[in-house]
Design goal:
The complex is a heterodimer of chains A (558) and B (131). Chain A is of the alpha/beta class and 558 residues long. Chain A is 51% helix and 6% strand. Chain A is built from 22 helices and ten strands. A five-stranded parallel β-sheet of chain A has the order 1-10-9-8-7. Chain A has a five-stranded parallel β-sheet with strand order 2-3-4-5-6, with helices on one face. In chain A, α7 links the parallel β4 and β5. The radius of gyration of chain A is 24 Å and the shape is globular. The two termini of chain A are 46 Å apart. Chain B is α/β, with parallel strands linked by helices and 131 residues long. Chain B has a five-stranded parallel β-sheet, with helices on both faces. In chain B, α3 links the parallel β3 (59-64) and β4. The longest helix of chain B is centred in the middle third of the chain and has 14 residues, at 69-82. Chain B is globular, with a radius of gyration of 13 Å. The chains are: A alpha/beta (558), B alpha/beta (131).
């Protein structure tokens, strides 16, 4: 972006400045011996045109909505439409979560995002002994279509889009969503939303797993194939870095492993015989917004550029929509502190700002109490207002990608990209992401980074305000949301009633059909939709899969 | 003279998959010279107690971040009692709201370490209370 003469002149001035700085530092040294990001990437004292002398505006940045999309995926970005404000919500039973959905929509939220409880996430019903104490605790309990119908009561499913954070049983919940919409007279081509459906990051980081990797991938490809044909507005996989980061990865690792997962899914779909341009436009991404402001912005910008080039050059995509990395962001849950919890509002604001400046398509801002429990209505309102203040009050959305051209941000964007590409090369050399997961490569890298960060905190090298510095005796308490144990009982009763009133022969026939299709190669989705309409439960279908495919258990490395 | 290493079982009860804290503690304890057994994820209280007895551990650390600690932690104590192994002390960690801590202590959990506790705090606690 600069002429050779300009860069040479800057280099001369830089040397002069270095001398000046040396004198100044002789009197008073810098505050730290080493300045680094939260991911421990060393940051220099100043960035100049020298650092981005090779950057080519046309080739590396371009305009928003144009290849390689570094500056954003839409031409008008947030001047056209703000990001979707989508607060992750789910607690207790379907009744409680439905009430929270209505509350959020009435306060200006623009899309829904569903959190399920652990038994649902792992493919167990509420009445399984393994679910004891966990029903409705960290999300909503869904056993059968009867729960889903209550969850979306009064929600216009043709207008509101819904994201569902669900992985091993993702195909089942999608089937339930389709069935619920169809019961309301909304056809499957009119509904919009997302299932997370990203098992690779479960094996790598979040560890909500059920079946071994191979059959997990087969079911995922079935959903992609089905959505491409029948549910065209549905995002079939939300390729997620969020959990990789929460498990303790660095920003580069989050970027690298998430895009490596993306490559894994695209390859699996291509191997099935799907045309990349038919399904790739409906893949979306989900990233973390951690505390290191510029590192995060560089990460989002690098991600877009990497994906665009990978899709065009590696997979031969022709449709520009296949090359767009559209992403949801959630502020970093792991950065919240139980100590002095009101500080979490401030942390979340900066994190959300980095996501917005990084060009996010949708955003969840954590509530101040989420390090302790699910958020109260009061706390979630502040979190939503934070987004509204960023979007409509502070002026950052007046222009697109305002940090482009910053010597530092561009240099950091390049650095994130080259380090992430080196990881991806390594994974390719291992034979792809499934092989890398099998030998525990990403898992080990993340565990090492998490341990390193914890050591830095324990030794005070990294500061967490209120935790290892500026501590105080606290008298301030926040009100927490608790889940009534009656939810578990109500859930048991409802499930028992459903099981009693449904057509047992039809249930058996549906399960037999799923088992046969699972052993064969037919797409499972139509069978799942038939089954959920017959009120077959999440666990009944998952038990069938566990029988056919076996289970995946944690190798327990540390 | 050989001093016997303190043997610790780090366990993840329930369906919750958040293992970052458990793994950091496991590694921190190993680096501090303890012998560490890690159960891996998704263990029932019964399985955890069985492993503790089979491995003949001196102390058990349990971690939970998804809100089921009020059922799972006391249940482990109950089963230890049933098996006559309640001489093995149990400590806990994770997302544990402050109001729950006295209830868990009363149920027989010996100590709770919440987010922000340095690894060293757990190490010294074990050294002072076990062995």
């Amino acid at each position: 972006m600069f002429t050779k003469t300009t860069v040479e002149r800057v280099a001369e001035r830089h040397q002069e400045w270095d001398k000046l700085l040396t004198k100044s530092l002789a009197k008073a040294p810098e505050r730290l011996e080493r300045f680094s990001t939260v991911s421990d990437e060393v940051i220099k004292n100043i960035y100049t045109p020298e650092d981005i002398s090779d950057l080519d505006y046309d080739h590396d940045l371009g305009f928003p909505g144009q290849f390689p999309y570094t500056r954003g995926v839409q031409a008008s970005m947030h001047r056209g439409r703000l990001w979707t404000m989508r607060q992750f919500a789910g607690m207790g039973g379907a009744e409680e979560t439905n009430a929270r959905f209505h509350y959020l929509l009435s306060h200006g939220e623009t899309g829904l995002s569903t959190a399920f409880d652990m038994p649902t996430l792992m493919g167990y019903d509420s009445d399984n002994p393994i679910s004891l104490g966990e029903v409705g605790k960290c999300g909503v309990a869904i056993d059968t279509l009867a729960d889903m119908e209550i969850l979306f009561e009064g929600i216009p499913m043709d207008k509101v889009t819904t994201s569902m954070t669900i992985n091993p049983p993702a195909a089942i919940l999608l089937a339930m969503y389709i069935a619920t919409a169809e019961k309301k007279g909304v056809s499957r081509d009119k509904i919009g939303g997302t299932i997370q459906n990203d098992m690779l990051k479960e094996f790598i980081a979040q560890k909500t797993f059920m079946l071994p990797p191979e059959p997990s991938m087969r079911i995922i490809v079935d959903t992609v194939e089905f959505c491409t044909k029948e549910v065209p507005r549905w995002n079939s996989i939300s390729i997620s870095g969020y959990h990789i980061r929460e498990a303790g990865s660095t920003a580069v690792q989050e970027l690298a492993f998430t895009i490596a997962d993306g490559i894994g899914y695209v390859q699996a779909c291509v191997d099935r015989g799907l045309d990349v341009d038919d399904f790739a436009p409906r893949l979306s991404y989900f990233f973390n917004a951690h505390v290191d402001f510029f590192e995060e912005i560089a990460k989002y910008r690098a991600a877009r550029r990497m994906w665009a080039r990978i899709m065009r050059d590696r997979f031969g995509a022709k449709n520009p929509k296949s090359m767009l990395l559209r992403f949801h962001t959630q502020t970093a849950g792991c950065s919240l502190t139980a100590q002095q919890p009101y500080n979490n509002v401030v942390r979340t604001s900066f994190q959300a700002l980095s996501a917005v400046l990084g060009g996010t398509q949708s955003l969840h801002t954590n509530s101040l109490d989420e390090t302790l429990s699910l958020p109260t209505e009061h706390a979630v309102t502040i979190a939503l207002r934070t987004q509204q203040i960023i979007g409509e009050e502070i002026g950052v959305t007046n222009t697109i990608d305002p940090l482009a051209g910053s010597f530092f941000v561009e240099a950091l964007t390049n650095e994130m990209e080259s380090k992430a590409l080196a990881y991806i090369q390594k994974i390719d050399d291992m034979g792809g992401i499934l092989k890398a997961i099998e030998v525990g490569f990403p898992q080990k890298e993340i565990a090492d980074a998490a341990y390193n960060y914890q050591r830095q905190i324990d030794e005070g090298e990294k500061v967490i305000v209120g935790v290892n510095k500026y501590r105080m005796d606290e008298t301030l308490k926040v009100d927490l949301l608790t889940i009534d144990p009656a939810v578990e009982r109500r859930q048991h009763q409802r499930l028992a009633k459903v099981k009693e009133s449904r057509d047992a022969a039809r249930v058996e026939a549906c399960l037999k059909a799923i088992e046969d299709a699972s052993r064969g190669t037919e797409n499972l989705m139509p069978y799942l939709i038939d089954a959920v309409k017959a009120y077959v439960s999440v666990q009944e279908i998952c038990d069938c899969w566990r029988k056919v495919y076996g289970r995946y258990t944690d190798p327990g490395m540390f | 003279m050989n001093v016997k290493k303190i043997k610790v079982l780090i366990a993840k009860p329930g369906l919750d998959g958040h293992d970052r804290g458990a793994k950091i503690i496991a590694r921190g304890l190993r680096d501090a010279g303890f012998e560490v057994v890690y159960t891996g994820l998704h263990q029932t209280p019964e399985e955890i107690v069985a492993t503790a007895i089979q491995e003949d551990v001196d102390v058990i650390g349990v971690s939970s971040l998804a809100g089921a600690h009020m059922y799972l932690f006391p249940r482990i104590i109950e089963i230890l009692k049933e098996k006559g192994a309640d001489d093995i002390p149990v400590f806990g960690g994770g997302i544990i709201p402050e109001d729950d801590i006295p209830v868990l202590l009363k149920a027989g959990i010996k100590a709770i370490f919440t987010p922000g506790s340095p690894v060293d705090e757990t190490i010294s606690w074990i050294r002072n209370h076990v062995g």
